[in-house]
Amino acid sequence: MRGRPAPAPERLAALRLRLALAKRRHTIRSLAAILARIATEMAGEIDRGTVADYIPSLARVSPAHFGIALVDAQGREYAAGEAEMPFSIQSVSKVFTLTMALRLHGDALWHRVGREPSGSAFNSIVQLESEQGIPRNPFINAGAIVVSDVVLAGADPRETIGDVLAFVRRLASDERITIDRDVAHSEAVTGFRNVALANYMKSFGNMSGDVEGALKLYFHQCALALSCRQLARAGRYLMLDGRHPDSDEQVVSPLLARRINALMLLCGHYDGSGEFAYRVGIPGKSGVGGGILAIVPGKASIAVWSPGLNERGNSRLGTLALERLAAATGWSVFEGA
């Protein structure tokens, strides 16, 4: 029995295009629906965690807020909840200053800060004594202060603060991003533990410049105010092997992008990093302002914000939302192909 003739190449190409467009429309509808469902579920959560009341400006933020935004590898954007409301990104900023330090100094940075999970609270001083003033990783406070010292490199702190702001604006392609001066002031007048960390590292010779200048930079970078949509855009280069999708600039090499993502997975949630990897399985960096930046390499840059924190200082609902997003999409890095 004679079979059907093979379709003409042009018909086959048209069929493939229709299938691709149908798949794209399905993906768009699915992601939009997933985010909307997650936002609705988070609105109904009773236990929203506790805001960071040790920083006066953050203590005034209501735990009722929730927002989520996602940018995929094709540049499509999805958002739900209060995704346009700026918030203090706090330690999420450490991803961007680490990127700046690696651009400036490459692997030489690792002589001054480690790459291992700490297993300790984000502001712990305990390990510094036994490890000769070398912080375990760049995402705990001590490590981030060293990174700030590296980025500052003896320059005027005001100029370097401007450089950090300009860098984040460039990553997000958004000149509206600002630093919340009230939050920066709150950080400075209550940051006694960070002052102690910086001076203790100085005693070991691991602060090359002026301690006050490095702390000023650190407090101001933590006071960067971005919305979920802006933060998701700022993280796109880590989704795309270090490439900025708007300018085509290679922000960092593909190798460095992979390594920053690895550090986010291993160390991005302090002594809760193992739990986050277990539950979510996506590289992520949290901040005590309630934000989390999460990166699915090759697929998505995601930002979520809910100010209430769990006992480890990470957003309670932000973690839950990302866990549900990973389950719905299969985006955990531990999922099979």
Descriptive report:
This protein is of the alpha+beta class and 337 residues long. The protein has one domain (47-329): Beta-lactamase. It contains 14 helices and 8 strands. α5 (141-152) packs across α9 (211-222). The two termini are 39 Å apart.
Question: Mind telling me which CATH architecture this is?
Answer: 3-Layer(aba) Sandwich
Helix and strand succession?
A: HHEEEHHHHEHHHEHHHHEEEH
Number of strands: 8
Strand content: 5-15%
**Class in CATH?**
Alpha Beta
CATH topology: Beta-lactamase
Q: Indicate the percent of residues in helices.
A: 40-55%
Counting DSSP H or I runs of 4 or more residues, the number of helices is 14
CATH homologous superfamily identity? DD-peptidase/beta-lactamase superfamily
Radius of gyration: 21 Å
- Tell the overall outline: globular
Task: Summarize the SSE layout with pairings.
Elements: H1 9-43, H2 56-59, E1 67-72, E2 77-81, E3 87-88, H3 93-105, H4 126-130, H5 141-152, H6 157-172, E4 178-179, H7 181-190, H8 192-203, H9 211-222, E5 224-226, H10 228-234, H11 236-239, H12 254-267, H13 273-279, E6 284-286, E7 291-296, E8 300-305, H14 316-329
Antiparallel strand pairs: 1-2, 1-8, 3-5, 4-5, 6-7, 7-8
Helix pairs in contact: 1-14, 3-5, 5-8, 5-9, 6-9, 6-10, 7-9, 8-9
